[in-house]
From TrEMBL, chain A:
Subunit structure: Component of the PeBoW complex, composed of BOP1, PES1 and WDR12. The complex is held together by BOP1, which interacts with PES1 via its N-terminal domain and with WDR12 via a high-affinity interaction between the seven-bladed beta-propeller domains of the 2 proteins. The NOP7 complex associates with the 66S pre-ribosome. The PeBoW complex associates with DDX27, BOP1 interacts directly with DDX27.
Keywords: Nucleus, Repeat, Ribosome biogenesis, rRNA processing, WD repeat
HAMAP family recorded: BOP1 (MF_03027)
UniProt superkingdom: Eukaryota
Species: Electrophorus electricus (Electric eel)
UniProt entry tagged with the keyword Transcription: no
Role this protein plays: Component of the PeBoW complex, which is required for maturation of 28S and 5.8S ribosomal RNAs and formation of the 60S ribosome.
WD repeats: 292-333, 598-630
InterPro entries the record matches: BOP1/Erb1 (IPR028598), BOP1_N_dom (IPR012953), WD40/YVTN_repeat-like_dom_sf (IPR015943), WD40_repeat_CS (IPR019775), WD40_repeat_dom_sf (IPR036322), WD40_rpt (IPR001680)
Subcellular location: Nucleus, Nucleolus; Nucleus, Nucleoplasm
Protein name: Ribosome biogenesis protein BOP1
Domain BOP1 N-terminal as annotated: residue spans: 27-285
PANTHER family registered for this protein in UniProt: RIBOSOME BIOGENESIS PROTEIN BOP1, RIBOSOME BIOGENESIS PROTEIN BOP1 BLOCK OF PROLIFERATION 1 PROTEIN
KW Nucleus (keyword) present: yes
TrEMBL record, chain B:
Every NLE domain range: 4-70
Start-end of Acidic residues biased regions: 185-194
A GO biological process held by the record: maturation of LSU-rRNA from tricistronic rRNA transcript (SSU-rRNA, 5.8S rRNA, LSU-rRNA)
PANTHER family associated with the record: RIBOSOME BIOGENESIS PROTEIN WDR12, WD40 REPEAT PROTEIN 12, 37
Membrane-spanning ranges: none
The protein's name: Ribosome biogenesis protein WDR12
Function: Component of the PeBoW complex, which is required for maturation of 28S and 5.8S ribosomal RNAs and formation of the 60S ribosome.
Each WD repeat, start to end: 100-144, 149-181, 217-257, 257-289, 302-338
Classification of source organism: Eukaryota, Metazoa, Chordata, Craniata, Vertebrata
Origin superkingdom: Eukaryota
Keyword Iron found: no
Subunit structure: Component of the PeBoW complex, composed of BOP1, PES1 and WDR12. Within the PeBoW complex BOP1 interacts directly with PES1 and WDR12. The PeBoW complex also associates with the 66S pre-ribosome.
């Protein structure tokens, strides 16, 4: 609707004053109040009405209530009756005109009777039957707007009802949470006989006990009060410690936070590590097959030839015997000058020598068993030695035996300053280490070189009584076991590489894994400690399978087995699988307890050794027999 | 009281006595014979102590008097080898015939090459890495070492002669099998010993010319414990590396390998039923089919021994019988049709049984670590006696 200025509406307005619809204040200062139609000024009345006049007017004029001061013309107008009526009607919201009747009867524009002829006979347009084109246009515009992104279509509302968890954000520490998980306070101790006003006499403290009670600290006392006896309940005074006891109880209640102990339901079977069954770890020796009889006293040491055909044993009856493994036939017996402490067969397959230690001597014997060529080559090797020009003074004398000893097979005699307890060959077969245990001296271990007939003492200082030594199978390390520790020395750098701490009081025997990374130690306090040299200096595992002291331990060269023999007469064979990838720890499973030896003079099995190729174990005992378990 | 003539042989130098026939009462027993020997020895050396001797006669140990031993079943002879570095030839009639002493070390195996009425060839294998080929003429009772076969680098544990009797194969601790010719050659004959009877101390210089092997078969990774010929071109060997290998003797190549789980001690083949029987270091006797191509196929496992099985042999006449000897002092006779238990347990030895065999005439022999050689007679019953 076009805009019309306001003043053009009011044609019926006052034409006596032609100034229009303006605020009359503009004529406040002028004597006239406007202009009439002729253009002449309309003057205000001469005398203005002041307050007194107004007041008098109000009081006395009967028409005061219908007199209005007209601002346009400046005169007072008195409304007539019809005008007053009109005003009243307008105020009530009726129509102004009296004669107007708003409730005229409705006249039907069109009759409600159904006629036979239509209003118009115009034929229907096509647009009555087809979808509306206007709407299509509008829809197209909407689609375009949606595609352009000006209008975003509304996503349909999810019809699924929406819930929320009332208790989702519950905090157990919150007050409400604490109320729910109420842990009741521990109850106070009910009063016993001591608290009675008339306790039995044995509950009363004697003088000495009272003195002791008084001397003790209040924290130490068992009872915080002295039991007292009164004749009757009337005589019982007020309890002096009442407030203190209640205070202590309050301290207990709120200073000691109470917490529910969460019991973990652990299946005890889960704690046991899942070890494979022994059946899966075959082959390992299971029963005694052969017994080698012949010695008359306890056999301290055995050793197997590298081919696995012969066995040598040394015993306290001063003999060394050579046996054929598969038939238990003793092929040779050699008498030596003292109880034999240790025998060791040279592990090099091209040399046929056995080192035997008795007393202070170590003899190298060519047993003459096996391949003739090798035996003769060994003899030639020994005899082809040339003495160097300058003979250094050595602590150990090398001598070549003659006569009967030579015929028996002895090729070299080494005389040591002290009794030799153990001999051990290097893997190549040229170096031989001997142990002379003596806690004080620094000459406990000597290393001999057979081809040059030279002896060396590798250590300056004494570190403890040496129990046994061993060469490392592949690296230039030398392992020395004293009573509590095993020290690994690097022979090339001539320094101490590692010190392994076994938790044992007295180490008795030691063996190195053929792979070179693991060492086992047997000790006299029934423990077998397995060390992983890469892992740490403490034992990886300590096995306590035996009941008595361990005397000998051994590894198998090819199979993942190790065995330990002890004074309880048994040999325990364990599976010890070492993995090539450095991630897995060795798997140790005890597999078989082999019994057979008879305990003689409280000694059982003294030495164990594995066959080099077959999963068989030999054990020598104090009963004078060597037993083969297969 | 009848008297018998007897000669005493031994290789043990300490107890050598004169090699003259003695006249012994027929009812003498071991103790009596022992006393005789002891007296003779006391006569020789003043400080001889009385020693109990054991006597081997006719392949049997004297358990009762001499007279009962002279039952004659005189067809074949028996040879046994022993740890006193000799092998002996016994006849089942008469007396101990010959002692084959020539090795410098323990004799581990013997085999006949050929035996006919006049002269026989035999082989002995020993720990001194040699195999000696002997010729024995039974009429003159003379033994002569024809050849010394050297070549092994370890003790020779087992020998076996091929069916044509022209070759033999030896297996040893050096993991090799060597095939040699068994025909004695006449060139370079040494002067032979002119003696009509075997001597106690056979001169060991006369060992004959050295012979080298025709072929060496290598493949085993451990010692060879037993070898045998299956037919003229096929060899079978069992070893400590838990395998049985079949070789072609012509080309020297390995044809087949059967794998077991334990060390094999002994093996035997029966051409009648084409089965191999093995004894191992566990107490089972296993039967194998050598024709099987896939790995190991144990057809049957006979379990009754309680120690290592050191000897198995098929019966040459019966295709289902075999004997086995073991370290539990027993020799057992099995029938493969009843695999749960042996037919017989022959408990005669007091120590480990180290070898067992059949003779041509149906006797079973076994020798053991108690220095004894036992013969047993087994007569097959036609009726089913018992189960």
């Amino acid at each position: 609707m076009p805009f019309r200025p306001a003043f053009s509406r009011c044609f019926s307005w006052d034409i006596r004053n032609t100034v229009g619809n303006i605020p009359m204040e503009w004529y406040k200062d002028y004597p006239h109040i406007g202009y009439d139609l002729d253009g002449k000024k309309i003057f205000k009345p001469i005398r203005n009405k002041d307050e007194l006049d107004e007041f008098l007017d109000k009081m006395e004029n009967p028409d005061y209530w219908r007199t209005i001061h007209d601002k346009m013309t400046g005169t007072d107008v008195c409304l007539s009756d019809e005008q007053v009526d009109l005003v009243h009607r307008l105020q009530q919201g009726k129509f102004g005109d009296v004669n107007f009747n708003e409730y005229e009867p409705a006249i039907d524009f069109f009759s409600n009777e159904v006629m036979i002829h239509p209003v118009t006979n115009r034929p229907a347009d096509k647009r009555s039957f087809i979808p509306s084109l206007i709407e299509k246009e509008k829809v197209g515009k909407l689609v375009h707007a949606i595609k352009m992104g000006w209008i975003k279509p509304r996503r349909p509302k999810e019809t699924a009802p929406q819930y929320y968890d009332l208790w989702a954000k519950e905090d157990p520490n919150a007050i409400l949470g604490r109320h729910k998980m109420h842990i009741p306070a521990p109850k106070m101790r009910l009063p016993g006989h001591e608290e009675s006003y008339n306790p039995p006499p044995e509950y009363l403290l004697t003088d000495e006990e009272r003195q002791v009670w008084e001397q003790q600290d209040p924290d130490e006392r068992k009872l915080s009060f002295l039991p007292q006896k009164y004749l009757s309940l009337r005589a019982v005074p007020a309890f002096s410690r009442f407030i203190q006891e209640r205070f202590e109880r309050c301290l207990d209640l709120y200073l000691c936070p109470r917490q529910r102990k969460m019991r973990v339901n652990v299946n005890p079977e889960d704690l046991i590590p899942k070890l494979p069954r022994p059946r899966d770890l075959q082959p390992f020796p299971t029963l005694q097959s052969l017994v080698y009889h012949g010695h008359s006293s306890l056999i301290r040491s055995i050793s197997i030839s590298p081919s696995g055909q012969w066995l040598v044993s040394g015993s306290d009856d001063c003999t060394v015997r050579f046996w054929e493994v598969c038939t238990t036939r003793c092929l040779k017996t050699m008498e030596v000058g003292g109880p034999v402490k240790s025998v060791a067969w040279n592990p090099a397959p091209s040399i046929s020598l056995v080192a035997v230690s008795y007393g202070e001597n170590v003899i190298l014997v060519n047993p003459g068993l096996g391949d003739r060529l090798i035996c003769s080559a060994t003899d030639q090797l020994i005899s082809s030695y040339e003495e160097p020009e300058e003979v250094k003074d050595q602590q150990v004398q090398w001598a070549v035996p003659e006569g009967k000893a030579q015929e028996q097979g002895q090729r070299l005699i080494l005389t040591h300053p002290k009794a030799v307890k153990q001999v051990s060959w290097h893997g190549r077969g040229d170096y031989l280490a001997c142990v002379m245990p003596d806690d004080g001296s620094s000459l406990q271990v000597v290393i001999h070189q057979v081809s040059r007939r030279r002896t060396q003492n590798p250590f300056h200082r004494n570190k403890g009584a040496v129990q046994c030594v061993s060469f490392h199978p592949s690296r230039p390390y030398f392992l020395v076991a004293t009573q509590r520790y095993v020290r690994v020395y690097n022979l090339i750098k001539q320094e101490l590489t590692k010190k392994l701490m076994a938790n044992c009081k007295w180490i008795s025997s030691m063996a190195v894994h053929p792979g070179g990374d693991n060492v086992i130690c047997g000790s006299y306090d029934c423990r077998l400690a397995w060390f992983d040299l890469d892992l740490s200096t403490k034992p990886y595992k300590v096995l306590r399978h035996h009941k008595k002291a361990l005397r000998g331990v051994a590894y198998h060269k090819h199979y993942p087995l190790f065995a330990s023999g002890s004074d309880d007469g048994t040999v325990i064979v364990c599976h010890g699988m070492v993995y090539n990838d450095l991630l897995q720890n060795p798997l140790i499973v005890p597999v078989k307890v082999l019994k057979g030896h008879i305990i003689t003079h409280d000694l059982g099995v003294l030495d164990v050794a594995f066959h080099p190729t077959q999963p068989w174990v030999f054990s020598s005992g104090a009963d004078g027999t060597v037993r083969l378990f297969t | 009281m009848s008297q018998l003539q007897a000669r005493f042989f031994t290789d043990n130098k300490k107890y050598v006595i004169d090699d003259v026939p003695f006249s012994i009462p027929a009812v003498s027993e071991i103790t009596d014979l022992s006393n005789v020997i002891n007296k003779l020895l006391e006569g020789k050396n003043g400080d001889h102590k009385h020693v109990e001797f054991d006597f081997l006669v006719q392949g049997q140990f004297l358990r009762s008097s001499l007279a009962t031993h002279l039952e004659t079943e005189n067809i074949s002879t028996v040879m046994e080898c022993s740890y006193d570095k000799t092998a002996r030839i016994w006849s089942l009639e008469g007396k101990a015939v010959a002692t084959v002493a020539g090795h410098t070390d323990v004799v581990k195996g013997v085999a006949w090459v050929k035996r006919d009425g006049l002269s026989s060839l035999l082989l002995t294998a020993s720990l001194d890495q040699t195999v000696l080929l002997w010729e024995w003429s039974s009429e003159r009772n003379k033994l002569r070492a024809r050849h010394c076969c050297r070549g092994h680098a370890g003790s020779v544990d087992t020998i076996s002669v091929d069916p044509t009797r022209s070759k033999f194969c030896s297996g040893s601790w050096d993991k090799m099998l060597k095939i040699w010719s068994a025909v004695p050659t006449e060139e370079e004959e040494e002067e032979e010993e002119e003696s009509n009877r075997p001597r106690k101390k056979q001169k060991t210089e006369q060992l004959g010319p050295t012979r080298t092997p025709l072929m060496t078969l290598s493949g085993h990774t451990e010692a060879v414990s037993s070898v045998l010929w299956m037919d003229t071109e096929e060899l079978c060997s069992a070893s400590w590396d838990h395998t049985i290998r079949l070789w072609d003797a012509e080309t020297g190549s390995q044809k087949n390998m059967l794998t077991g789980s334990k060390v094999f001690n002994c093996i035997s083949y029966s051409p009648l039923c084409h089965r191999l029987a093995t004894g191992s270091t566990d107490r089972h006797v296993r039967l194998w089919d050598p024709r099987s191509k896939d790995g190991s196929l144990v057809l049957l496992s006979l379990t009754s021994h309680t120690g290592w099985v050191t000897a198995v042999r098929w019966s040459p006449s019966h295709e289902q019988q075999l004997i086995s000897g073991s370290l539990d002092n027993l020799v057992k006779l099995w029938d493969t049709r009843s695999c749960k238990a042996p037919l017989y347990d022959l408990a005669a030895h007091e120590d480990k049984v180290l070898c067992a065999d059949w003779t041509d005439c149906g006797l079973i022999l076994s020798g053991g670590a108690d220095n004894k050689l036992y013969t047993y007679r087994y007569s097959a019953c036609l009726s089913d006696a018992g189960a």
